[in-house]
Amino acid sequence: MYKNNYKVFFLLLLVLFSFNSCTNKKNTSKKTIEAQKNIAHSQKDYHLFYRFEAIPYEIMINDVMCEIDFENGMPGPTEINHYLLKSGNQKIKIKVIHPYAHENMMFKPKDVEFLNKNLFIADVSYNDQNEIELDTIKKLDFPKIEVEVPFIEYEWSFKVEVPYKLNAWSNSENLNNWNKEDLKEKVLSKFNYLRNLLNSGNGIRFVEELKYANKEYFKANYFTKKQENEYLSNLTRTYSNHKGIMPQINKFDLKIMGDGKVVTLQNIDKNIGQSVLTAEDSKKKILYLNYIMLHKPKNSEEFEIIRYNSNITSLDKE
């Protein structure tokens, strides 16, 4: 059993703190001040807000896994810019599962109101007093249910305006055209390679594997070079701490998403639904959740990491 969970929001805090610091700088040039305001206005910073308490959930944006928690139902918000490849229409799908569905317990019609209470997408910004403001661009509401059900799943569309374009998986191979056994073999080979990097404590090399994913993450979240360096330093230190604690990859499920262009391996026994690169440090009582997603560029023979979601929670076993 895992308890006292906390999400590592240093990514969000780093972006917000740095943006806040920029707005605090004294500047005697009116032209520069106006330019800063225009930049801030264009830098849309979209987040998904949700609070399902202990209810397991899965959140996909544009058919790519954004957040998944089948154990504890950790709350948001979570940043989503790097899942928004360009301005225009987007889609989000959320699945919530009754925490005792395995005991045949069901969601009742009245439960939907609770699920909808704190569920929305907002642009996060600062006003002239450096106070956080939320501009809700989409309130998300699960539709009413007439009968009791073990899970609820629904998809919404929403529109955004962002000052960037990401290639992401747009030009990747369609993995639905692959022979499933061949695909599983290639993907497993890549995950075993990544697992060995982590287990050897080679955080530097593992972070190099994130190069393309980080490049797009930095672009979508408006990182400065200083912020990039701090972020990469934190990542390297965290992944280096995985030395000697990575489990073997045995029981897993191959999951294809991103309209057939993104793939991962998910655990099907322990830490269900999480990536096979999830690791437990029993001495420090830390659970590392590393949800890694791959794609295969059309001009490459190798799979590479396209998106990842790394969180840390405390580990406490009964």
Model description:
The chain is of the alpha+beta class and 318 residues long. It has two domains: 1-165, no CATH class; 166-318. It contains seven helices and 13 strands. A four-stranded antiparallel β-sheet has the order 4-1-6-7. The protein has a four-stranded antiparallel β-sheet with strand order 3-2-5-8, with no helix packed on it. The protein has a three-stranded antiparallel β-sheet with strand order 11-12-13, covered by helices on one side. A hairpin with an 8-residue loop joins strand 12 and strand 13 (304-314). Helix 5 packs across helix 7. The radius of gyration is 20 Å and the shape is globular. The model is unreliable at 1-39 (pLDDT under 50).
The poorly predicted ranges are 1-39
Distance between the termini: 6 Å
User: With helices defined by DSSP (H or I, 4 residues minimum), what is the helix count?
Assistant: 7
Query: What portion of residues is helical?
Result: 25-40%
Report the C-alpha radius of gyration, rounded.
20 Å
Strand order of the largest sheet: 4-1-6-7
Summing up helix and strand content along with how strands pair, one would put the structural category as alpha+beta
Largest sheet composition:
4 strands, antiparallel
Mass-distribution shape: globular
Strand content: 25-35%
The strand count comes to 13
